[in-house]
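Sequence in, structure out.
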Amino acid sequence: MPVCSHNDWDPLEEIVVGIADHSQLPTLNKSTHSFCYANESWEDIKHLEGPHDRRIIDEANEDLDRLSHELTKLGVTVRRPLPQDHSKKFSTPEWTTSGWYSYCPRDLLLPLDNMIIECPSPMRSRYFETRIYRDMLYDWMADGTKWISAPKPILADDSYQLENLKDPTLLNKEIVFDAPNIVRLGQDLLYQVSNSGNLLGYQWLKSIIGDKYRIHLAEKYYSFAHFDSTVIPLRPGLVLFNGDRCTPDWYPPIFESWDKIFWPGDKVPDIGSNLAGGISPCSKYIGLNLLSVNERLVIVDENQTELMKELQRWGIESMGLPMRQSRTLSGGFHCVTLDVRRKGTLENYFT
């Protein structure tokens, strides 16, 4: 069946779940520094390159397999990518790098209605990562999905800055954005400008799909990477915010009429990173990175017990599962999945 996905809460029917096989720390260069470790000095991260410990890979795969099993039990069709050796080097005229992983299918593919867009990541190590979904993309296209790819960026060193972390490290020199910079809300899309998506990316996306969607710009809420641990719509009329990044006086105005949960950071347990020195490519807020099965059920990190209680107050049940390497590999339940089919239609949730 073709791709059909309009938001993050319609009843889930088909999903891609990532794998941890051959995950590694990619070649350290300015793009890796900008995306993964912007708040760390070069001296503190220069050793972070090469293969992960076997335990990290094994535990991550155990948790991804468990997630796949539970989704299958719920009647969801689960697809998995084939393993790919991410240690292989590849080049453009400007640089040479290794790959990263197949852990986060969310990041590089954006499903919108019956279309899927390959996104132009700011990470050099992800330049060819969508090849692992090639068979799926051809299957979906054969079933009627529209498949397009954004222009490939050059990603030269002058596309990044690390001097002023109050501003995004990704500069506005070419079209660059990851899929989780976009929050899907039916006919409305919220586009975040950050270290993983710039204004030119917003302008390109608007030029391609602006006749079908209203695209709203979100700036200065969170300048590091993706938006899906900051703004988490749970159903029409209800949104969960990271309370350390959004407040009752500062949140995307599109949600003005919705009920809002501002979840404080001191209620987000930190499971920690297994990288040397405790350095992580993401923050503890990856614990807010949940996957909605439908409006009444979400899958969330089993450590987030207080959040599960709060969601229950709003009529949402939680399935707590382990994701032990989420801070080490940089991906929670929303990151490690890609919902390509949900039962629903394209709706207008805002007047």
